[in-house]
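User: Sequence in, structure out. Go.
Assistant: Echoing your sequence, followed by the structure tokens.
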Amino acid sequence: MAIINQGFGGRRRRDDPALPPGQTLVEDWPVLSAGPTPQVSTERFEFSVYTETGEKHSWDWDGLLALGVEDITTDIHCVTHWTKLQMPWRGVPLDAIFENIETTQDFVMTHSYGGYTTNVPLDELLDGQAWIAIEAEGAPLDPEHGGPARLLVPHLYFWKSAKWIRALQMMPDDEPGFWEQNGYHLHGDPWSEERYW
């Protein structure tokens, strides 16, 4: 599977307390993807949550937005060593999505259009920590940045913020997703430099 990287230009700031260890500050937003870019229109978009009982909760585009959209300003940190500070986003909080979903499972596997997966503990998606992002920097998400919707989990390395999100599947155990099966850390905390196993 090809890795697409349009490159980035940045500079390291060793004394900036906003930068996790080993990160370089960038002003642009580098594009990195594994494989081709899915083209998903808002007309055919569907987002689902699957519980351990097999129950499926689904939203079309309008139904997702009806849950309530929030403005977020946050830093993002890529495992490839770049950081973008104070980036504005808009998205639906995962708290709203899980408001009427019952589960006893502690982990989630995210599934994307195009087949990408990544694992995240459920407690790191709730309590104002994660969103289904639909806009960045004042504009709808471009397909190369995960549009029309991507997961946004800014306190973890950015590979956990899965592009082209289509589903969350509840899991009892922390099973590895795509990059985790290929050597990336199961958790991905940038402040602890949890880059690789």
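User: And one key feature?
Assistant: The longest strand covers residues 82-93.
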